[in-house]
Amino acid sequence: MVLFITTADPSAFKSITATGQGMRRVYDRRTDSSSTMNAYLFKVEWRDGLTSEIQVNPEFGDSAAQVESQKYAVIVGRIPTCLRKDVKAITIHSKSEGISINAYIKNALERQLKMSY
Fold it and tell me: What is the average pLDDT score of the chain?
């Protein structure tokens, strides 16, 4: 059986707060490489008590970064808690094929989960 997440599903998104800009090393699927960027940063709080950071590429500009971070926070909030519990950072690039979700496993191993939406 295959289950799909749709726009009809509820979202655990609770709130989002802009926290300024900061240097972050991120993966960019468009170039298939990692780079450091001065990302727009947002703290997301989920209704289940979890938190994540959204990192928006500065190519968006401030106001567009706010719009995109809110949009993807609602979308990622539709992912069940058991799959979202290790999501620490969500990276958004312009003109990309979806977003990148960086999940850090508790046993100190790191994995990167890519989600296209």
Answer: 83
